[in-house]
Amino acid sequence: MAATPIAGVPREGDEIPPFARRTGFANWNRYAAVNDEFVPMHMDDEAGRAAGMPGAFGMGNLQLAYLHNLLRQWVGPDGAIVSVSCRFRAPNTKDMRVTARGRVVKVSEEDGRVLVDLDVWTEDEGGRRLAPGTARVMLADA
């Protein structure tokens, strides 16, 4: 069962609502435009194959952005993302559905604010973890 800050303080083991996107050239192009990251292996199938992949593939930091979206949608506009990090283990390829997920590992209080530590990750449709990591968020006052 997914916990949300609005419903109260989450508990260890709670999963937060996922964030999912089907990736491909349109996503990569928008990301590249914002970040000035028009790298050939992310834009051109031939360059992707030259890099050892089946074709063009998504930027690693786009997976980090999906984790950020996961956390932002969960904590809402009044919560804060304190930290988030991940390790890129596998790329996202064209037409792959990438889902960002998170699970609460610790809930604590500091200066009257609720802090939540989470395991976070992106995964493909088969559940293979592409970018596992950790995050800490501060929930808004209840």
TrEMBL record:
Q: Name one Pfam family in it.
A: MaoC_dehydratas
Domain named MaoC-like: residues: 27-111
Q: Which domain of life is it from?
A: Bacteria
InterPro entries membership: HotDog_dom_sf, MaoC-like_dom
Q: Which family does it belong to?
A: Belongs to the enoyl-CoA hydratase/isomerase family.
**What is the protein's name according to its record?**
Acyl dehydratase
- Species name: Thermocatellispora tengchongensis
